[in-house]
Amino acid sequence: MAGPRRIRVLIVDDDALVRAGLSMILGGTPDLEVVGEAADGGEVVQAVVTCRPDVVLMDIRMPRVDGLAATEALRALPRPPEVLVLTTFDADEHVLRALRAGAGGFLLKDTPPVEIVQAVRRVAAGEATLSPTVTRTLIAHVTVGTASDPRQDRATRLLGGLTERERAVAMAIGQGLTNAEIATELFMSVATVKAYVSRLLTRLGLNNRVQVALLVHDAGLV
């Protein structure tokens, strides 16, 4: 009898040593499977079509096609995989742009192996991999300027179209709370929170909860 399906991972990095290290870390985990590697963002779409990963570990800085462009290309696919950005900087404009483009979170390259494995699992499950502290650092690093900023206007308009309960869930996501924490905070079941998150993504036209958090920050609500 076959066991549970493993999470399929594609590793994208121009450094062969980094790819080898990540492959060793992830390949030694029973519920993860490294199904392919790519050395540049330009190879990613074909690799995804060929390998059908659930999660792409994506280096943000590559010499030809960077992780930002590759993430944007993946989001255009009919059934894109989740993207987890790899970077050496914890507050970088390229990282923020990749998150806006649809990446499910990011990891520093010196993240301990056990945390890398946990992050891959969370992203595969649709959970954010940004702590409240990291989110605040990113937003502060690339702050939107004035109240007339088009991004802030758009965020305010989109959030203004939500129901009071939907807005409360969005605010909680913006604060970096998990589904379980939101359930406790708003006196809901976890299943109800998940339903609200799915509804938010559909109503706001977003890919994942990281983008919901960024929208809340854009509106100046957190």
UniProtKB/TrEMBL annotation:
Keyword terms, alphabetized: DNA-binding, Phosphoprotein, Transcription, Transcription regulation
Record PTM 4-aspartylphosphate, positions in chain: D59
CDD domains: LuxR_C_like, REC_NarL-like
InterPro entries linked: CheY-like_superfamily, NreC/VraR/RcsB-like_REC, Sig_transdc_resp-reg_C-effctor, Sig_transdc_resp-reg_receiver, Tscrpt_reg_LuxR_C, WalR-like
Protein origin, superkingdom: Bacteria
One of the GO biological process terms: phosphorelay signal transduction system
Sample GO molecular function, one term: DNA binding
Keyword Electron transport: no
Response regulatory domain: residues covered: 8-124
Listed SMART domains: HTH_LUXR (SM00421), REC (SM00448)
Limits of the HTH luxR-type domain: 155-220
Pfam families assigned: GerE, Response_reg
Name under which the protein is recorded: DNA-binding response regulator
Naturally occurring in which organism (per UniProt): Micromonospora craniellae
Lineage: Bacteria, Bacillati, Actinomycetota, Actinomycetes, Micromonosporales
